[in-house]
Amino acid sequence: MPRMVLSLDGVVLREVNLSKERTTIGRRSHNDVVIDNLAVSGEHAVVYASGSDIYLEDLGSTNGTTVNGQPIKKHLLQSGDIVEIGKYRLKFLADGATGSETEVDIDTSQPLRREFYGPGPATIQVRQPAGGADEGGQPAAMIKILSGANAGRELALVKALTTIGRPGHQVAVITRRPTGYFIAHVEGEVFPTVNGANLGSAAHPLKDKDIIELAGVKMEFSNPAAAG
């Protein structure tokens, strides 16, 4: 299925499957891809299918839309095209194509931008699939949810970047680096806590058995590679 990978400052925020005839992009909450940033118009752009082709069309936005650095009104998308809307980038990937963005890690020495990138239900979300091992075949670190509707559920951190939380309320990312796992705040006026301590805006290294509290949900981080 064709898709677009949304990123900001090199950090992947989400993947959007283009399963609908029309996928709208804009600041207002009714869009399929919501980017709550003043540089983005309420209804900024739309991606739509015409036969076997997929087009991107700017909807008369204030600040415009560019593809591969060139301003466009309407553009026939090719796999690998980079769409820029404000400071955000969307990489278009045709059906069956793979994109390196899905493996992008972040510089944990820098705080992430606190930007809202999409609406979501009032439940804890993990945007990467669970599994038993990471991409290198090593036992994956895990999150075990301790409270709320999903209490007892375990989620393997099998990807380089996992987004957790409630979009529009409180969101964080857990990243896997050669030196270990780190958690960083992305969105929300209230910062997550680790073992009861406010996380703040900087990335924080995670240790086995750390307790994370995010969006009113407590969870335990465990790392088999570091345990014992």
Q: Any descriptors?
A:
228 residues, mainly beta
Provide structural commentary:
By secondary structure, this protein is mainly beta. Helix content is 0%, strand content 43%. It contains no helices and 22 strands. A six-stranded antiparallel β-sheet has the order 2-1-11-10-7-8, with no helix packed on it. Strands 14-13-22-21-18-19 form a six-stranded antiparallel β-sheet, with no helix packed on it. Strands 4-3-5-6-9 form a five-stranded mixed β-sheet, with no helix packed on it. A hairpin with a 2-residue loop joins strand 21 and strand 22. It is elongated. The N and C termini lie far apart (43 Å).
Main pleated-sheet profile: 6 strands, antiparallel
Q: Structural class of the secondary structure composition?
A: mainly beta
Unreliable residue stretches: 99-131
Shape: elongated
Percentage of residues in strands: 35-45%
Helix content: under 10%
Q: Give the strand tally.
A: 22
Name the helix and strand elements from N-terminus to C-terminus, one letter apiece: EEEEEEEEEEEEEEEEEEEEEE
- Summed up, the helix count is 0
Strand order of the largest sheet: 2-1-11-10-7-8
Estimated radius of gyration: 18 Å
Assembly state of the chains shown: single chain
End-to-end C-alpha gap: 43 Å
Overall pLDDT confidence = 78
Question: What is the structure about, briefly put?
Answer:
The protein has 228 residues and is mainly beta. It has strands at residues 3-8, 11-17, 22-26, 33-34, 45-50, 53-58, 65-67, 70-72, 74-76, 82-85, 88-93, 125-126, 142-145, 154-156, 161-166, 170-177, 180-187, 193-194, 197-198, 204-205, 211-214, 217-222. Helices cover 0% and strands 43% of the residues.
